Amino acid sequence: MASLKNYNMKIMWETAVVFCLCSLSLVSSHSRKFTTPTVTRLTDQFSKIAIENGFSKRFGAPNILVNGSLAKLTLDKSSGAGLVSKNNYHYGFFSARLKLPAGFASGVVVAFYLSNAENYPKNHDEIDIELLGRSRRDDWVIQTNVYANGSSRTGREEKFYFWFDPTQFFHDYTLIWNSHHIVFLVDNIPVREFPNRGAFTSAYPSKPMSLYVTVWDGSDWATHGGKYPVNYKYGPFAASVADVKLSGCSVSNGTSTGSCTKSGGSISSLDPVDGQDFATLSKNQIAAMDWARRKLMFYSYCNDKKRYKVMPAEC
């Protein structure tokens, strides 16, 4: 009887070890404990808008549900879904709180980005935050990118791990675009700055753009270069959008509207969202960005010598 008991205990112990090893193989970046930097919450300076007031349904209308300042965009076998701003903008502050699809979502892309590809198909500009779906072993990834004047062959991607689970709660994703710089922020922490100076200027977006929020099938490239496509057995994949904040110089038919100026204020037609908080990064923001890039960035185009025999000028 004692030997049988010992045998059962051995089996239980081995099972527990195997379970633990399997669990360890699936540990994601956000399971590690990070002490996040303290930064100014720029998003608190702006008011949210009603989705219907600021956006139109760009594609996949049956897969879009809107309720005030909330929206749900769903990817299924029939279609993805996308919203596009009713106005084009030349510089501004653009933010939304997003909650990503839970579970196995390889190949799924949730994107929050500015683009003018529809108006300038041959020389478009683009500023991207693309959230790339998880595989069985790896979690969601943040990808940032910048295009200018149709330079899509020169990808300027940088990729980051999350420091939290983006599927459990809503988190802030923000783009600042003005005459000084482009800043990509997640929960108000800058992860990347693209300055409008020096060698960066030739690759700096300069034409009015629309804001898009989309979910779509990126099977051919999104997860490990297309190694793991979307598996619709785990779908549908729903991304939730809340608290969109849009403050910029709206442009209609190439002409700036009244939203570009404020009476008695210092806001100019070039930088509708003005002030030191938006012209430069503070010491705390620089330290926070350094933290994000040291701890969480795992790819930068400027380090990819296999991809570029001649590196982009700003590198």
Automatic annotation (TrEMBL):
Active site (record annotation): E126, E130
Enzyme class: transferase
PROSITE patterns named in the record: GH16_2
CDD domains assigned: GH16_XET
Keyword Lyase annotated: no
Entry keyword Kinase: no
InterPro entries: Beta-glucanase-like, Beta-glucanase/XTH, ConA-like_dom_sf, XET_C, XTH
Subcellular location per the Swiss-Prot or TrEMBL entry: Secreted, Cell wall; Secreted, Extracellular space, Apoplast
Domain GH16 per the UniProt entry, residue ranges: 29-241
GO BP, one annotated term: cell wall biogenesis
GO terms, molecular function: hydrolase activity, hydrolyzing O-glycosyl compounds; xyloglucan:xyloglucosyl transferase activity
Modifications the protein undergoes after translation, according to the UniProt entry: Contains at least one intrachain disulfide bond essential for its enzymatic activity.
EC number from the UniProt entry: 2.4.1.207
The organism's place on the tree of life at top rank: Eukaryota
UniProt keyword annotations, A-Z: Apoplast, Cell wall, Cell wall biogenesis/degradation, Disulfide bond, Glycosidase, Hydrolase, Secreted, Signal, Transferase
GO CC field: apoplast
Pfam family name, one: Glyco_hydro_16
PANTHER family: XYLOGLUCAN ENDOTRANSGLUCOSYLASE/HYDROLASE PROTEIN 8-RELATED
Function noted in UniProt: Catalyzes xyloglucan endohydrolysis (XEH) and/or endotransglycosylation (XET). Cleaves and religates xyloglucan polymers, an essential constituent of the primary cell wall, and thereby participates in cell wall construction of growing tissues.
Family statement drawn from the similarity comment of this UniProt entry: Belongs to the glycosyl hydrolase 16 family.
Name used for this protein in its record: Xyloglucan endotransglucosylase/hydrolase
Source organism: Microthlaspi erraticum
